[in-house]
Amino acid sequence: MRLTFLGAARMVTGSSYLLEVGQDKILIDCGMFQGSKAISNLNRRPFAYDPSSITSVLLSHAHIDHSGLLPKLCKEGFKGPIYATQVTAELCKIMLPDSAHIQEFDAEIANRKGLRAGKAPVEPIYTLDDAYACLMQFKTASYTAEMVLSPNITVRFQDAGHILGSSVIDVYVTEQGQTTKLLFSGDLGQPDQPIIQDPTYVDEADYIITESTYGNRKHQHYDDKEERFAQVINDTVKRGGNIIIPSFAVGRTQTVLYYIHKLRMAGIIPDIKVVIDSPLAISATDIFMHNTQDFDNETKQLLLNEAENPLNWPKLTFTKTADESKALNHLEEPAVIISASGMADAGRILHHLKHNLWRPESSIIFVGYQAEGSLGRRLIEGAKRVKIMGEEISVRAQVYNLEGFSAHADQDQLLDWLGHFKIKPMGVFLVHGEFDMSAPFAQLIESTLGYPTYIPRYGDAVTINGKEWSVIESDIIVEPAVKELFAYLQQVEIDFQVYRKRLEQIAVTDPSKIPELLDRFVKLYAPIKKTLNDL
Ligand SMILES: [Zn+2]
Ligand SMILES: [Zn+2]
Asked: Is the pTM of the predicted complex or chain greater than 0.85?
């Protein structure tokens, strides 16, 4: 069999892996690339395979960086089934049309300027019709049930504890009478998150393809996140400001609601006005409430015993129209406003930031991953002035980054999950992480768990034959627009190889020096990363 890495390779977005076994061609995720211009341009590249030759798709969860290119895949000839859990399919029903709407809107804007400048018209990557057509191809995969895809391939979805409906996917491949198990982690959540179940521990796999978003980070304030959250809210209310929470519509918003509900029920924060200002978040919250069967026991109990619903209570308001959203700029009393996008680079959140960033009495709380180059990343890094919708805004509000709310496992949690395998896997492939997160993490996995670890490049393929595997380097032709990007990534790799050699020598004589050296690598990588974002 052959496994090709077609996205989320040395970056976080664009998850997609092609598994070829004889006549079977299975795609695991078909996500959209998000971030700098060079990275999002990858969405416009032709697929590295003929979409009509794909036999089926396994979708780990609904987030756009995993599902976002499915409408393009179907539009270009894929006719087979897309297997996903019931909740993932329901969430895609709102997220893919929403994404299509953004594609159409972006193309329209580009054309308005471009046509005047004499440029050729830009087509949207896909349209609303493409998104609806693609939704017809979804088929339900139930948690823990084995599904036979073909005589040689059986798969099983299990809860990944990342967002409702998210899955780790087991793929059993039989070739020449021997069965090999591949395990795709999808995105892995933190244990003890509210509403959703904990990530499923798996105790055997021959090969693991795992995310590494926070491979080189330990979430701060994990233990006291509720107290910190309450304190920020209370302090802001005292100052008479608003609490603005940029949040991903699906998953984070519901987690934040849960905590606000819990804190107000306990009388730790006042019963202030809370507004969800994101049509997508409103629909997603609805889907959550219709799928309580997948909730964790604690939340199920809470729904049975408590008078008020943690996702809907009297002083929680949902704003649907743009006018209702604008009216929030003139609120007289302090309020919590939760809006998208989570990285503050688009959407209604921009209006709320524009009206609150300059006010020293207001607070901005980030609760999720902030990609390089996003407005959110600049704010948490302490920018004093930012440009929002063409306007210079001075940053005088308090800005907080509460990492404990993250939907992704951190280094300790990833290592713990990886440590549950009873027999050492033959190989671990680290995906879904920027290189300064995955490279030190690969080192750590090898030194603590002894699993052979590889960080694939975009387009790399791995041939697997039972216990044997080898890497075939990418032969995907990269056009000039993204060539520079790959040249940089390559340079980083050369630098890291040098470090790795030194690390191996040092590990023998003085292992205590390793963290310091890894740290130095991350610093070395920083300017390269900055350049990457400007491409
Ligand atoms: Zn995700
Ligand atoms: Zn992801």
From this structure: yes
